[in-house]
Write a structure and sequence with these properties.
heterodimer, A: mainly alpha, MetI-like fold, about 80% helix, B: mainly alpha
């Protein structure tokens, strides 16, 4: 009996490459957009704060699949801008996961005790110095493990972009399956590959958490889901 | 095996049984994008027509009902499984706790859509049951972790005090552990419920006709997907708000009860 997986390995690995590249690009954009969103969300001006909050809450309570559909079908149709499936899927992922990144950043900043910034101000530092030298370093430390776990969620999220025709790892696998009719082998293989990658990153995140002594943002993280 | 299953797929557009089963032309095998050819041409001059929601309210309602069905059944089953796994993880028997940990780590780190495809195409389950079981298997690890951290956050001294004051193990569980554990566990369980409602959308990948699927169906019949998706988004938001509010109320009620006692 020939081995379905080995025969199609180059094709599957090509898909896996797309998944990884896509995840990395999305995560970078999410960090940028998420930082901006977090800044808006924490703004003193309600004009900036309220829309950011509405945006975050809206996207957080909508399924990722529906958001992907929004970006591939409905937004282009209403605005008249046509987009490639890959771009649309990437935009959807960024729009969705940036809200998660923003929430993690907010929680990471909030987890720094107030006394820290009070002590900084009392010792004569300017506000920006308190932020840059006291609050942010500690906040970033708190954020890193949670951001790694978001990256895992993001890798798993890319599997949903198969539905609009992005040939990433999962879509490559369904194409192989349609050709070979070997569902059990193909999908077991897919599950194991995702597991190895995601479990590896999850463990790395946990290691970072212990190593950095970061505060657990578990309450916020639980609400983000996967 | 794939053929036999897809041959029973009734096309929602013209209500005929699909003869292209198993081929790349099959509606389930193709990505949704190619089901809407020409959507780019019509992009210009898109005018909104919200009465389509009223005309197709039956489809939307059917979608909401299936989503609710999946969510409620999924939550009950995954809570049951999650409690069992969570207790197993706390077991002093090493084999049992390692097995439970293995389950948690594996099913947490494999995308839901992969699990559902495995159950549907690999195991050969029906679309609804594959979707439901996938959602249950995927959510149970999170619930197990919530239960585990809820129970293990109760200080040891509590058990010892309860035991010393003459309560039997079952009474310790009922009167000492449970009231405290429930208060800790409820808020994260609610957010897990919200996540579960969102995850039910993934069941559309194997043809479960839930809310997100219906927006695509309304779109392919009327070309009014924008309106349908707006309605669907609002429905999801309302569902999530209702769950969070209901649990907040329940939490307040439970606090009130313990205070009276």
């Amino acid at each position: 009996m020939r081995n379905v997986i080995l025969d199609n390995l180059p094709y599957l690995m090509n898909g896996l490459k797309t998944t990884i590249v896509m995840s990395i690009i999305t995560m970078s954009l999410c960090l940028l957009f998420g930082t901006a969103l977090c800044a808006l969300r924490r703004s003193h001006w309600a004009v900036l704060r309220v829309p950011a909050r509405l945006y975050i809450d809206l996207l957080r309570s909508t399924p990722l699949l529906l958001i992907i559909f929004w970006f591939i079908f409905f937004v282009p149709r209403a605005t008249g801008i046509s987009v490639e499936p890959y771009t649309a899927a990437l935009t959807a992922l960024v729009a969705y996961f940036a809200t998660h990144v923003a929430e993690i950043m907010r929680a990471g900043i909030q987890a720094v005790p107030r006394t820290q910034s009070e002590a900084g101000l009392a010792s004569g530092l300017a506000r920006w110095q308190v932020s840059a030298y006291i609050v942010l370093p500690q906040a970033v430390k708190n954020m890193i493990p949670a951001l790694i776990s978001r990256f895992v969620a993001l890798i798993m999220g890319t599997s949903l972009t198969y539905i609009v025709g992005v040939i990433e790892f999962f879509r490559a696998a369904t194409i192989v399956n349609n050709r070979e009719y070997a569902s059990i082998q193909v999908f077991s293989f897919v599950a194991v590959v995702y597991f190895v990658i995601c479990f590896g990153f999850s463990q790395f995140g946990e290691w970072c958490r212990r190593r950095l002594g970061a505060q657990a943002l578990s309450r916020v993280e639980a609400g983000l889901g996967r | 095996m794939t053929c036999a299953k897809l041959a029973t797929y009734t096309c929602p557009v013209n209500q005929t049984t699909c003869s292209r089963a198993g081929s790349p032309d099959c509606p389930l095998a193709r990505p949704f994008l190619s089901r809407n050819p020409g959507f780019r041409e019509a992009a210009i001059h898109y005018s909104f027509s919200w009465q389509v929601l009223f005309e197709y309210r039956d489809m939307l309602l059917r979608g909401v009902l299936v989503t609710l069905q999946l969510s409620i059944l999924g939550f009950v089953l995954s809570a049951a499984l999650g409690i069992v796994i969570g207790l197993c993880r706390l077991s002093s028997n090493r084999t049992v706790s390692m097995l439970a940990r293995g389950y948690v780590e594996f099913f947490r780190n494999v995308p839901l859509v992969v699990q559902i495809f495995f159950l549907y195409f690999g195991v050969g389950m029906g679309s609804f049951s594959a979707g439901l079981l996938g959602i249950v298997l995927y959510s149970a690890p999170y619930i197990a972790e919530i239960i585990r951290s809820g129970i293990s956050s109760i200080p040891r001294a509590q058990y010892e005090a309860a035991h010393a004051s003459g309560l039997r193990p079952l009474q310790v569980a009922r009167y000492v552990v449970l009231p405290q554990a429930i208060a800790i566990v409820l808020p994260p369980l609610a957010t897990e419920g919200v996540n579960l409602v969102k995850n039910t959308a993934v069941a559309l990948t194997v043809g479960v006709e839930e809310l997100t699927f219906m927006t695509q169906e309304i779109d392919s019949v009327t070309f009014r997907g924008f309106e349908a998706a707006t309605a669907a988004t609002l429905i999801y938001v309302v569902l999530c708000l209702v769950i969070l509010q209901a649990v907040a109320l329940l939490e307040r009620h439970l606090k009130f009860e313990t205070r009276v006692m």
